[in-house]
# Entry
Amino acid sequence: MTCQQLIEFLTEYIEGQLPLSQRAAFELHLALCGQCRAYLHNFRTTIEAAQNAFDDPTVATPASIPEELVQAILRARRSN
Ligand SMILES: [Zn+2]
# Structure
């Protein structure tokens, strides 16, 4: 798996929707690549911030959250 592929699979990984074989490749890459570990950490922090914002409608969505990430979170919430 390349860094590019890891980033493509990131949302599915976090949502627990990655098939086992891809999940293993994903975690192997994470173990070997500090850059992607940092990316995953930032991604999770951003999602938590976004979810906190969505849970409290009086809090505006932080401007630093990319629109595509907001859409991904909204899709994930709808599928629950
Ligand atoms: Zn990487």
Notes: Residues 3, 6, 29, 33, 35-36 surround zinc ion (CB under 6 Å). The chain has one domain: 3-78.
